[in-house]
């Protein structure tokens, strides 16, 4: 058992400062799998080391995606390790051989959690979801369902279900993204409206959005130059401002 602070410090540097210099990196399997089960930020940080063991050392982790799915909670849009987490989730969901129900469950859960996310996180996760649709066309039924969300009496998706295959995500629709099209931040509303059109084949580059902060977003808005809006002004005549009615003939505002 390690103190939480030490646990985090070790996991932050494990993937690039420890594993590459070990003769047998597989010795860290137990340590990383236990860390992955702790929950919270420690589980997020354990993903880096696990990715190396899975990708380079043929580690087979049963129920890996189920555990990854369970890590999706409201805090993922607020933790300081958000960029690292979404970078790895993007890698884990990059394979085109993943079943549609699994990817749909991730899309639906990310969309539901997005309803309470800050704007800087939304500007990252909406292109992230669009990329998942590009990789997995079978999931586009969530957007292009013949009977849209207005025809559903209730959302069949089960948010509390821990097993992605039982969440019924493929039977649902992305009404959450439709709701974000009315977001108070114009950039978020514009990003969400992309799903109303057919997506391009090329994926969006989200690397520059992973570490977008609220300060950067505010600074970008402040530095925007207001465009000159041409106005046509016409002097009001008469009581009701119309030119040729009877009130204009007999009443004046002067």
UniProtKB/TrEMBL annotation:
One of its GO terms (biological process) is ribosome biogenesis. Residues 43-192 form the CCAAT-binding factor domain. This is NOC4L protein. Belongs to the CBF/MAK21 family. It comes from Rhinopomastus cyanomelas (Common scimitarbill). Keywords: Membrane, Transmembrane, Transmembrane helix. The chain crosses the membrane at residues 31-54, 85-107. Pfam families: CBF. One of its GO terms (cellular component) is small-subunit processome.
């Amino acid at each position: 058992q390690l103190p939480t602070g030490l646990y985090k410090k070790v996991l932050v540097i494990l993937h690039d400062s420890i594993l590459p210099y070990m003769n047998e990196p597989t010795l860290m399997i137990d340590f990383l799998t236990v860390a992955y089960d702790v929950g919270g930020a420690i589980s997020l940080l354990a993903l880096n080391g696990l990715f190396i063991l899975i990708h380079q050392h043929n580690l087979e982790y049963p129920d890996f995606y189920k555990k990854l799915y369970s890590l999706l909670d409201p805090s993922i849009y607020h933790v300081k390790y958000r960029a690292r987490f979404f970078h790895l989730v993007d890698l884990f969901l990059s394979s085109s051989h993943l079943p549609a129900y699994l990817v749909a469950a991730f899309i639906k859960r990310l969309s539901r959690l997005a309803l309470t996310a800050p704007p800087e996180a939304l500007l990252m996760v909406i292109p992230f979801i669009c990329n998942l649709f590009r990789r997995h066309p079978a999931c586009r039924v969530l957007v292009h369902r013949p009977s849209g969300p207005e025809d559903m009496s209730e959302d069949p998706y089960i948010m509390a279900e821990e097993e992605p295959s039982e969440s019924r995500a493929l039977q649902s629709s992305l009404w959450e993204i439709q709701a974000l099209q009315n977001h108070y931040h114009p950039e978020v509303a514009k990003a969400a409206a992309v799903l109303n059109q057919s997506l391009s084949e090329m994926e969006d580059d989200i690397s520059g959005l992973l570490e977008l902060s609220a300060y950067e977003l505010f600074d970008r808005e402040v530095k925007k130059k207001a465009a000159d809006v041409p106005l046509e002004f016409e002097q009001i005549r008469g009581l009701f401002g119309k030119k040729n009615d009877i009130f204009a003939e007999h009443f004046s505002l002067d």
